[in-house]
Amino acid sequence: MTPILYSFRRCPYAMRARMALILASKKCELREILLKDKPDEMLKVSSKGTVPVLQFTNKVLDESLDIISWAMESPASNVHIYSEAEESLALELVQLFDSKFKYHLDRYKYSSRYGVDPRDHQQECRVILENLEAKIKPNPWIFGNAVSLLDISILPFIRQCKIANPDWFFAQDFVKVIDLLNYFENGNLFAQAMQKYDLWDPTKNNGNIFP
Ligand SMILES: N[C@@H](CCC(=O)N[C@@H](CS)C(=O)NCC(=O)O)C(=O)O
Q: Which residue has the CA at smallest separation from atom 11 of ligand 1?
């Protein structure tokens, strides 16, 4: 059976999973869903109710990083291979973006929902991006010519920070991060990952072969 991917186009976690599937040329049936109207078929296989979910006949992966690891089980020649030092930096940064950066990003974007001052959280995002700036020399990707799992894992979140207020974002000093994001957003991988699909309708069974 072709694995089934429940996905939401704009979700940064689903985005990174889709990019890994593209890079590894792993075919699946993509079912585009709405977070406010999750299909029972998805909730039946993963009660967590988050996307992405990758469903196989005999197992379900419902964490984006697990989907990335599964996709990369057979090495993808177009993906950067980490040195040991790079791997530990990548682990540290993915962890930082998934926890602290995401925490502040949510409060920056949805300050009224959280009852907080968005400026405090915008500043926290800035500090993290400035620290990233000090650690990387993108050329054009973080580790050189080939895209890395670090690139695909953190850039969707940095993009959300840009979208929250592009004027502010582009006026900041983290120029290497801005260049990296521009390169990412203008590339084929992103274009392919962001292709639009009709919503999945179980009555029509109109999933899409992806990638
Ligand atoms: N740790 C999960 C997080 C996934 C996640 O939180 N996805 C969001 C969308 S971006 C979601 O599905 N939220 C549920 C909802 O909004 O109802 C992963 O890496 O896959």
A: 50
* Residues 185-195 pLDDT 10s: 999 999 999 99
Q: Which atom of ligand 1 is nearest to the CA of 36?
A: 17
Q: How far apart are CA 90 and CA 16, in angstroms?
A: 15
Ligand 1 centroid distance, CA of 173 (Å): 30
According to CATH, the superfamily of the domain at 4-77+191-210 is Glutaredoxin (3.40.30.10)
Q: Residue 71: pLDDT band by 50, 70, 90 thresholds? A: very high
- The owner of tokens 């585009």 is 32
Measured in angstroms, how far is the CA atom of residue 51 from the centroid of ligand 1? Answer: 5
- How many whole angstroms separate alpha carbon 193 and alpha carbon 190? 5
- Mean pLDDT score, 136-140: 95
Enumerate the domain spans of the chain. 4-77+191-210, 84-188
- Architecture of the domain defined by 84-188: Up-down Bundle (1.20)
Q: What is the DSSP string of 124-143?
A: HHHHHHHHHHHH---SSBTT
Pocket of ligand 1 from Cβ distances under 6 Å: 8, 11-13, 35, 49-52, 63-65
Answer whether residue 123 shows pLDDT above 80.
Answer: yes
Q: Cβ(23)–Cβ(79) under 8 Å? A: yes
pLDDT of residue 87: 97
Total-model pTM: 0.97
